[in-house]
Amino acid sequence: MNHLITEKSDYLRAHAHQPVDWYPWGEEAFQKAWTENKPILISIGYSSCHWCHVMARETFEDREVARLMNEHFVCIKVDREERPDVDQLYMDALLLSGRPGGWPLNCFALPDGRPFYGVTYLPKPRWIALVRRIADLYRQEPQTVQDMARRLSQAIQQFDTSLLEAVPEVPTPPKIPWEEVFQALLRDVDWIWGGAWSSQKFPTPSRWLFSLRAGLLLQKPELLRATHLTLEKMALGGLFDPIEGGFMRYATDREWRIPHFEKMLYDNGLLLGLYSEAYRQKPNPLYRKVIQKTASFLLERMRLPDGLFAASLSAESEGQEGAYYAWRFDELEALLPEADLRKVFYTAYEVSPEGNWEGGLNLLYRVLSDAEVAERLGLSIEAVEEALEEAHARLRTHRNQRTPPPRDEAAIISWNSYAIWGLVEAYKALGEPLYLYAAREVAHTLLEAFSDSLQRLHKEDRWYGEAFAEDYAAFIVALIHLYTVTGTERYLIRAQAFLEKSLELFYDEKEQVFCFTAKTLRVFPVRRKDIFDTSTPSSNSLFAEALWRLAKYFQRADYEEKVRVILGRLRRQMAENPTLASHFLQVALLEEACPLALIYRGSHLLSFWKRYEPQIGWVGYITSPESAIPALKSYAEAPEGTWCLCTWGACRLPVHSEEAFWQQVEVEKERLKSQGLA
Q: Residue 172 falls within a domain, yes or no?
């Protein structure tokens, strides 16, 4: 038993009985390293990480390996879901030293925490050789190690500053070279299988949401085509679970067929929102199924008793990656004995007695769509859909008898916020009240728990851990999303309160962007800025969106200035590397191409959301004769069912039907187009 036994994290506690003398991240470990003049080994992973579990079993449970590590190092285990700031620092160190990233992330550092070398997964013999080599280097050539750490620390600091342009003297909207952005994005598209050109494919929902909106707003049909191709291929591939719903983290092949099997809450919340918005733009029946099954997965498999959502499902069950999701051919034969049903299923899915995956097993990925199956077999699409749903139901009943992948029970604020977004967007798309109820339940649980400062994680009936910029920013945006479908002004008021707290905790007045860690958390010499939109949006892009939207509601010119400075400092990043600035680009679209707003006084706004009109940048929803929102007060006493269209702060005469409102929208769009403003 080591020092992890009292930790809350499932990932850390899973290592508590290993012979490695693991410490949690904290002062005790660093003090021991200083006192004994030992280098630190920082090993970072997370609960649903397959290769983390493999290395734990192969290497960290071996007593001889543990003896070697304990003799030469102070060993620290970090759950990246608890400490994304620590993960960010050491991952950047690994990447800047020219090695590929991933988890488990194993970084060697000086007693003060400065990294000098890092690797990801290594088999046990190579790990033993590396540990011995690093120990010898630290003992025999201490100056070499100091120089390595110094160079890497300088590279990290230079990397941070190189990404930001100078603070503008006047905060004006930056000029985005849209054509350069579009060409960079389109060059990277795999026009056969969708997604980006890569041997491994990640969903990157922020990128495709930007492409969807920009394709419409800036008349780029190629972006729309790339987006819909990607969404269709992801939904038909092995990345999506057709039995239970939900997306896995990434595909290990170009065709989206073989997934890395963990299911993450953040992926599924953001992808639910993406497919919901895409469905409103193009009502593809495939998207509708994805929305329904992904929402059901969240509500049935990821929901905790208090209404929050768990962090993830592991890639493993019973010690084997993907075992829960794979099928023997004889299993399928027994579960689908009817010849007609079997014929439909085998035509849709590429399964065989030899298997399509390792060990002669079959994974479920589509080779033909419903329409293609119907055409090949001479059936109606409805008959194909009915047959496949029957097959899926039988397979689900059988699969439920298997040992399921372990679930990480931690509820993380930012990831729960993405689930709120997704469920709100699904409600807009399909009108299912259960989705809105679940989103509100999460928000109410969080609002009742915190009046001011947030804590990042909830587990075993208590909140713990420092909240980071991404937690505040994602929750603020989630509250704004909820307001737009409920008219509950409390959500906006609390969103602004949390934004003001965020400015106090995270905003760097000199750099005029947000740091990832709070001013009160003193861990590293330099506070890092989170500015890359990857699997999730960066905290700075989320804050930019929150500032833009709340500036409209609360009529705050200072918020607008902050948005323009943030976008201005990231202008080069947006132009040169748009795939990693896709949420910033969404905010830039709001600033430049979404001049319309709706102010509605009434109680039935759901029908409005059925139509997809991204030029409407914000919506004011007033449900009672009193309003505390500055931009809406003058409309609060308007009659029920009043619709008012505004353009850049100037509002037209109100109308009293949705049809009349949409007529005004079309007239205004034509006017803006004629003036070159849309």
A: no
Query: Does 296 reside within a domain?
Result: yes
Q: Are residues 605 and 540 in the same domain?
A: no
Per-residue pLDDT tens digits for 23-54: 999 999 999 999 999 999 999 999 889 899 99
Question: Which tokens in the block code for residue 201?
Answer: 């494919």
User: How much is the average pLDDT of 413-419?
Assistant: 98
Question: pLDDT tens digits for 611-646?
Answer: 999 999 999 999 989 899 999 999 989 999 999 999
DSSP 594-645: --EEEEEESS--HHHHHS--TTEEEEEEE-SS----TTTGGGTTSPTTEEEE
Specify if 169 maps to a domain: no
Structural domain boundaries, residue 617:
596-674
Read off the tokens for 503: 């400015």
**Is 261 found in the same domain as 222?**
yes
Considering the domain architecture, whether residues 336 and 418 belong to the same structural domain is answered as no
Give kind and range of the element (H or E) at residue 309: none
Distance CA 354, CA 10 (A): 37
Last residue of a domain, one of 358, 375, 399: 399
Same-domain check for residues 17 and 142: yes
- Reported as a single tens digit per residue, the pLDDT across 225-268 is 999 999 999 999 999 999 999 999 999 999 999 999 999 999 99
Token pair belonging to 276: 């919901």
Total structural domains within the chain: 4
Predicted local distance difference test score (pLDDT) of residue 165 = 85
Residue 303 is which amino acid? Answer: R
Q: For 375-380, what is the mean pLDDT?
A: 97
Quick check: is 462 in a domain? yes
Please list, in sequence order, all residues whose beta carbon lies within 8 angstroms of the beta carbon of residue 94, skipping any fewer than 6 positions away. 101, 105, 107, 115, 118, 119, 120
Same domain, 130 and 64: yes
**What is the bridge-based pairing of β-strands 250-251 and 316-317?**
unpaired
Residue 425 pLDDT greater than 70, yes or no: yes
DSSP-based three-state secondary structure for 40: strand
Q: Which amino acid is at 662?
A: W
Distance, in Å, from the CA atom of 132 to the CA atom of 140, rounded to the nearest integer, reads 12
Query: How far is it, in rounded angstroms, from Cα 302 to Cα 400?
Result: 15
User: In terms of C-beta density within 10 A (0-12 exposed, 13-18 middle, 19 or more buried), how is residue 604 classed?
Assistant: exposed
pTM: 0.95
Q: Quote the DSSP letter at residue 177.
A: -
As beta bridge partners, residue 674 has: none
What CATH number does the domain containing 491 carry? 1.50.10.10
Verify that 602 and 586 share a domain, yes or no.
no
